[in-house]
Specification:
The complex is a heterodimer. By secondary structure, chain A is an all-beta fold. In chain A, about 0% of the residues lie in helices and about 55% in strands. Chain A contains no helices and 11 strands. In chain A, the strands form 2 sheets. In chain A, strands 2, 4, 5, 6, 9, 10 and 11 form a 7-stranded mixed β-sheet that branches. Chain A has a 4-stranded antiparallel β-sheet with strand order 1-3-8-7, with no helix packed on it. In chain A, a hairpin with an 8-residue loop joins strand 9 (about 85-95) and strand 10. By secondary structure, chain B is mainly β. Helix content of chain B is about 0%, strand content about 45%. Chain B contains no helices and 9 strands. A 5-stranded mixed β-sheet of chain B has the order 1-9-8-3-4, with no helix packed on it. The chains are: A mainly beta, B mainly beta. Chains A and B meet through strand 4, strand 5, strand 9 and strand 10 of A and strand 3 and strand 4 of B.
Amino acid sequence: DTAVSQTPKYLVTQMGNDKSIKCEQNLGHDTMYWYKQDSKKFLKIMFSYNNKELIINETVPNRFSPKSPDKAHLNLHINSLELGDSAVYFCASSQSTGVTGYTFGSGTRLTVV
Amino acid sequence: DAKTTQPTSMDCAEGRAANLPCNHSTISGNEYVYWYRQIHSQGPQYIIHGLKNNETNEMASLIITEDRKSSTLILPHATLRDTAVYYCIVRGRNAGNMLTFGGGTRLMVKP
């Protein structure tokens, strides 16, 4: 069973389109995250949701809108895609209480052409 | 959260121990040291974490100095599959304390 699963794994789309990436975790965690890894390989946090509520929103364009329908899901919707949005996006989850580590998904490689 | 400093890259011979250092001189008393690794094209993988005592699990050992200003991740018998970028991260235990990644150490295990 995959602990944190993301779909799709690859996404190629044209500039200006709107796309969504889905994430689901079956670990019973109460906090989920989206990270972006650009071509320089730096991993940057974008959003954090705890019990379906946004708790962290780093400096991310408002074209990016996360949505958490329940604790097990955190989807990322991106409007008006730009070339600079090309990156690998990782979803992760953790339990807010305690000191357990994060569990990451395998990533979604987004290419905007 | 405190910042960490790691060497950009290291090599290790297959079968030997890989010792990856990390400096975190500004760590505060309630912050933990975490290690993750990212194998090419995969999501980051949790390895180990500790507060002040040395820790060991099936993947690695974590040695934290008494003053907690530095630590070393030890892979006792490195294999080619351990080639990855290793991240040392300091993080508080509150929900608002995010896992913030730096540049990490690119470990190359060579035959």
